[in-house]
Specification:
Two copies of one chain form a homodimer. Chain A is an alpha/beta fold. Chain A contains 14 helices and twelve strands. The first copy, chain A, is about 40% helix and about 20% strand. In chain A, the strands form two sheets. In chain A, strands 3-2-1-4-5-6 form a six-stranded mixed β-sheet, with helices on both faces. Chain A has a six-stranded mixed β-sheet with strand order 8-10-9-7-11-12.
């Protein structure tokens, strides 16, 4: 299987590192031999080599340009037209409100007949229906397990483990940054200090407004609604309240009532629409949505199975990288 | 696909009811046509009909004998030798300490070359390794999703959604009866009254000692250790403390410290062994293991994905019946 990566930041680099170690072993055991034939970045050059790039050199190089063979790559779309690949990994940084540039990359990959895997929530949140239609037409897969709760199985869980089950609604705590800010405030840390901690740890989105104003949670809610409830919604349609207005007094008052405030995403059917909302809610301390030490909690309401929940423990880039492996294994299994 | 059921209690009956409705539709949509060719019970007779039994008559009949064709069925093993079937559903009532009679039924089914599905935890808890070896030799599947947390995906989650991931350990709240007794005691209900409520609702095991003394939790812990950590342990080897000694004073003292007491199962590697233990623990109110309104909580510690959790909301026989459908769909998919 020939892989092309668009975007080579934390997630892409970690994926490639693990491909040289445990991921490579897992793939080989499944009879899958993987070659990375191209990597495109916005600021560190791009490289294509049909014989397979040296992964250690890619990880070490300050610019990928030196590893490139053939005529120069003009743009990411030029890269995608030319890279000799079977599977495209779309890993660019994202605007969660509009979903670009990820959507354009996914579409270009599918049009060319590549399977596409992304860890970005944008494509599932902002344009899933047309992308899945395109994928079906091209008989290729478009997978995005990493879009929500990093690599914790959400989309694959429903697709592979709950055949025939209909998702009727959901509720979740899906944004780690706001959860950590609010739990910091419960311990007396100021909003600003808690946010700075998240940014220093590389957990907060580059633009903190994406977390604080609820855009990240809204995009995740849309991805779930679109993928699991066959909705056709987008972040701009979400009823969205962020946590910017939550004061230390609010947090303390909630604690006195044995409640915790968290940014909660909800999805429910309303006639033929699916209504997605994001807002801070004060919930009892023993409500599973506010449980300690969880980076994400998602409860699915279903027809045949009642409520099923999924929990994501303390997570980072390793989990997101694993989502790519898991999706890649699914594609490889189908090619057999 | 020809199905034979051994055991026709709450779970078996619910499965057959749903087979006439939503389960039948789901199977047909997947191109699977199902016929029930035999049902064996201990006290209500047995019936075999190669052309397929009338499900509505089976559900209504006081004894299955009237629906039987051919010479009488002498025993459940005689039934299993003769029933013309592809898949055996093992649904008898269980002794969770020794795993019988379920283990004998599973073995007989596999020996005859049937795929076997059970909702019983006994076979996975007490004899998994030899049963899986037999299944491999016969090129048949032995599946048991319903053994732990009813139909909530546990075994299928790891097998289908976490390829290559190693489970390093686990902790869980897996026994509903003790959780409801203890949460009743937090609200002032007596142990005995809370237990009676569970028995009246049909949630407690027939022999309350299985719940109270931790045998049920121990069997579930062994099933998880054997299936997901390649252990070879059994309930008698579990370090097991039940909740019989937990007093109202203990519960109140825990509450004052903002803790809740629950019966917790833990599994961890200790050299080449997996150590499984069951004991009441006092955990902080916001620990996910004691979250409100969950009939089961399981946290898996993994190598590549950190901690992943699975939650089972308020559940009953519908969830266990779904586990059978989910396993059946997996077998049907492989037969294609």
């Amino acid at each position: 299987v020939r892989l092309a990566l668009v975007g080579f930041g934390n997630v892409g680099r970690r994926f490639v590192e693990l491909l040289r170690g445990p991921y490579g072993r897992i793939l080989r055991r499944a009879g899958v031999h993987v070659r990375v034939t191209g990597i495109a970045t916005a600021r560190h050059g791009s490289a294509i080599d049909a014989r397979g790039l040296s992964l250690s050199r890619c990880l070490k190089a300050r610019s990928l340009q030196a590893l490139h063979t053939g005529r120069p790559v003009a743009s990411s779309l030029d890269f995608m037209r030319r890279v000799p690949a079977d599977v495209l990994l779309e890993l660019t940084t994202l605007d969660p409100r509009g979903g670009q540039p990820a959507i354009g990359h996914v579409r270009a990959g599918l049009r060319r007949g590549l399977h596409v895997i992304t860890a970005n929530k944008g494509p599932a949140a902002c344009g899933l229906r047309s992308l899945l239609t395109l994928a079906r037409k091209k008989r290729r897969r478009f997978l995005f397990e990493g879009a929500v709760m990093d690599g914790t199985p959400v989309f694959n869980l429903v697709a592979r483990c709950l055949p025939g089950v209909r998702v009727l609604g959901f509720r979740g705590m899906l944004n780690t940054t706001t959860a950590r800010i609010l739990s910091g405030m419960e311990k007396g840390t100021s909003f600003a200090a808690a946010l700075r901690e998240m940014q220093d740890a590389g957990i907060a989105e580059a633009d903190p407004a994406n977390d604080i104003e609820g855009w990240d949670a809204a995009a995740k809610g849309c991805a779930i609604a679109n993928a699991l409830m066959d909705a056709n919604t987008r972040p701009s349609q979400v009823e969205r309240v962020g946590i910017a207005e939550v004061t230390p007094d609010d947090v303390r008052a909630a604690l006195r009532m044995r409640n915790k405030i968290r940014l909660i995403v909800r999805g429910e059917r309303e006639g033929r629409r699916v209504r997605v909302s994001v807002a801070p809610e004060a919930l009892p301390q023993d409500d599973v949505l506010v449980a300690a030490d969880q980076d994400g909690v998602l409860i699915l309401e279903t027809d045949l199975m009642g409520e099923i929940g999924i929990l994501e423990g303390p997570s980072g880039v390793d989990q997101t990288a694993y989502a790519l492996l898991s999706d890649l294994m699914a594609i490889a299994a189908e090619r057999d």
